[in-house]
Specification:
three-stranded parallel sheet, alpha/beta, 2 domains, FAD/NAD(P)-binding domain
Length: 161
């Protein structure tokens, strides 16, 4: 299998990266060892900067509540055992703290990545990563073991290594 970019790991970061790259026309493959998104409780909170960045790049659904702005829009939270902290967001930005299970984010990012053209290969465990020299160019070669056996994925960026 030939591609521009191979992403190892289909968690929220890998899937978000795949959505971004594929959205810009970069041929992207995600290799994830798990067969499906894990429902095991993990992270459930996104804070201000992450929420704002995801919203500005179009990665959050439209139903995410927006801040009313001003002094009265603060969201109380705690960090490092310090209770009573307040974080605010400018008017029109999403609420600064978003409670959303990681599994839901992964499903959302995976759907966006697939829609943009990324290939998500679940149930594929990376067995080997090798960097090869071919004349003056370099290529990544990933040995991948999946349900159908071993697969070789070669990655070379759209403009060469």
């Amino acid at each position: 299998m030939q591609t521009h970019v191979v992403i190892i790991g289909g968690g929220p970061v890998g899937l978000l990266l795949a959505a971004e790259l594929a959205g810009y026309g970069v041929d992207t493959v995600v290799l994830e060892a798990q067969d499906a998104v894990s429902e095991r409780p993990k992270a459930t909170t996104l804070h201000a900067r992450a929420v704002q960045c995801l919203a500005r790049r179009g990665h959050l659904p439209e139903h995410v509540p927006l801040s009313a702005g001003g002094d009265g829009c603060g969201c109380p939270f705690h960090f490092a055992g310090l209770p009573g902290l307040v974080i605010t967001a400018p008017e029109g930005e999403p609420e600064p703290i978003l409670k959303w299970p990681q599994a839901e984010l992964e499903r959302l990012f995976e759907a966006r990545a697939r829609k943009a053209g990324a290939r998500i290969l679940r149930g594929h465990r990376v067995a080997e990563i090798r960097q090869e020299q071919e004349q003056e160019s370099e290529q990544e070669s990933d040995g991948v073991a999946g349900a159908g056996g071993a697969v070789t994925v070669r990655a070379e960026g759209p403009h060469g290594p």
